[in-house]
Amino acid sequence: MYARIASRRGANIAAVAVARTILETYYYMARDGTVYRDLGCDYCDERNKEHIRKRAVKRLEGLGFKVSLEEVA
């Protein structure tokens, strides 16, 4: 999360955003009496796969490359 936000907004804002997320998570866990369940390191990438693909293609085309994609079996 930090790396995603820091690349767009800067390191200080990313640190505050991550701290807020941790505090919110703790609050809801304490309020509801639940246990933390990790979603995995690639949760956001899998959830936003199409957006990541479009952004990568646009970035490469902006650098002057011709891009064609095909699915891996």
Protein model, in words:
There is one protein chain. The longest helix has 22 residues, at 11-32. This protein is 67% helix and 0% strand. The chain is mostly helical and 73 residues long. The model has no long low-confidence stretch (mean pLDDT 90). The protein has helices spanning 2-9, 11-32, 43-47, 49-62. The chain is built from four helices and no strands. The two termini are 29 Å apart.
In short:
The chain is mainly alpha-helical and 73 residues long. Helix content is 67%, strand content 0%.
| Share of β-strand residues | under 5%
Number of domains: 1
Helix fraction by DSSP (H/I, runs of at least 4): 55-70%
What is the first-to-last residue Cα distance?
29 Å
Structural class by SSE content: mainly alpha
Q: What's the order of the H and E elements?
A: HHHH
Instruction: Please state the overall shape, judged from the principal axes of the Cα atoms.
Output: elongated
DSSP E strands, number? 0
Catalogue the unreliable spans.
Answer: none
The overall average pLDDT, rounded, is: 90
Tally of individual helices? 4
> Rg to the nearest angstrom?
17 Å
Largest sheet: none
